[in-house]
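ok here's Phosphoglycerate mutase family (Rhiz), seq below lol
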Amino acid sequence: MNLPTIYLLRHGQTVWNVEERYQGQLDSPLTEKGKNQAKENALKLSKYINIKQVKFFSSPLGRAKDTSLIIAELSGLEDNQIIFDEKIKEFNYGIFEGKTKSFCRETLAVEFEAREADKYNYVLEGGESYAMVNLRLKTWLESVKNEKVIVVVAHEMINRALRGLYYNMKKEEMLTLRQGNDILIKLENSSEIILD
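and the structure came out like this:
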């Protein structure tokens, strides 16, 4: 499948990021640092593209939406030009959502250990696996394959899976990928570049 060049962003830091809580498809607000990260990412983007000339996709979850709105405002883009797409909302953590990692490790130890043993396939109660996320991301990639360049604001787990699909990585390699809240990544052909 031909794929567009993707400028890939993660939402700014949130309260729950600081508290080390699983967010998944629940939400918490951006911190002041998170808002500043969104502003910095808008400036980074402006060095490489005119955002008004490409399609701008965002997860509809509050933290990504708020990040996208900050980027749009600083880029002279109208809010209604952002495409909020359900297919790129965060991985669903099921029973872990809203809980701290330490709580899950201790109180939901059986589920925590089972997921750690097979992160790609394990499905938390009420949640998803990476295998399931990959299916929805493949559908989304199919829908954007005719674009030349796009901007995407999403989440760490989604961006990890998206990068893995983009390069046809082995799942073990994909699971090691990280992206900070202030990192802009350019996916193009067979390369991945972190942009300053």
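fwiw The chain has one domain: 5-16+30-91+130-195. kinda neat tbh
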